[in-house]
Amino acid sequence: MITHNYIRPHEALNGNTPAQACGIEMKGQNKWLTLIQNASYEPKVNRENYEPRS
Q: How many whole angstroms separate alpha carbon 51 and alpha carbon 25?
């Protein structure tokens, strides 16, 4: 399922992967490594201006 949704190009998306269509970058030859690196990335939040949703 992960290969189908992130790594494998699709005809309906003009040869792009669903990840590319959503703006997820899959750089380099090893797409699995890039996927793991993206999953482990923790975005930085400016805590001074952060307001949790109610």
A: 28
